[in-house]
Amino acid sequence: MNEPALILSKIERIYNRGSDAELPVLKGVDLELNRGETVALLAPSGAGKSTLLHIAGLLDTPDSGAVYVAGTKLTGASDRVRTRARRQMIGFVYQFHHLLPEFTAGENVILPQLACGVPKASARARALDLLDRVGVAGRFDHRPADLSGGEQQRVAFCRALANRPSVLLADEPTGNLDPATADKVFAAMMDMVHETGLAALIATHNLELAGRMDRTLRISGGNII
Ligand code: ADP
């Protein structure tokens, strides 16, 4: 149980842009994320941050190298195994909440659990507990359009945690919020991450937020420095 929550080993990703134009974005990235650790990923736009997060989250496949989540190698695994791992072991938060607009806040946190076979009553209880812990339980029956930006991101964060993942991946999770709201949402996220022992890799442009995490990694020239 002491293996890192996430290992990226010698990850290479080259985009093909037409017949003879190749763009190597990641050139052998190595990264280990331990349980309970929060790591900031700092990189200028275009450096490959989203590519790295998508590969770590099994949404994209590297051209070479391997991804291990909680000790299991998932590069080369079948689509079925990767999909299950993505649902159960990895939580995502994006810059924009991407909540399902026709469902309530509560339902947005319940649905991923139902997809993993959790009984409805337990899924509802867990959703209520998560939303309560980040201060938005009162918005349980409201649709995303009726929530503030900060509330939407709190709900999106609860959705990411719904299935008790080992790894949280976030791409500018507070980038769309005003500084005061970003600060509060970030603090709520960090409290929960520390309580749950989750490993978190959080891309941000915000140096102050990065400074509140355990470590900062930078991507430059296709590698982590
Ligand atoms: P970041 O998230 O750091 O801004 P990305 O990972 O989105 O960077 O992109 C890194 C580089 O790869 C950029 O130059 C981008 O234009 C290019 N890129 C991203 N996705 C693709 C794709 N599907 N096909 C071709 N080039 C891509």
Short description:
With 225 residues, this protein is of the alpha/beta class. The chain has helices at residues 49-56, 79-89, 105-115, 120-133, 149-161, 179-196, 207-210, and strands at residues 6-17, 21-33, 38-42, 64-69, 72-73, 90-93, 167-171, 199-203, 215-220, 223-224.
What does this structure look like?
It is built from 7 helices and 10 strands. With 225 residues, it is an alpha/beta fold. Helix 3 packs across helix 4, helix 3 runs parallel beside helix 5 and helix 5 (149-161) packs parallel to helix 6 (179-196). The longest helix is centred in the C-terminal third of the chain and has 18 residues, at 179-196. The radius of gyration is 17 Å and the shape is globular. The relative contact order is 0.20. The model has no long low-confidence stretch (mean pLDDT 93).
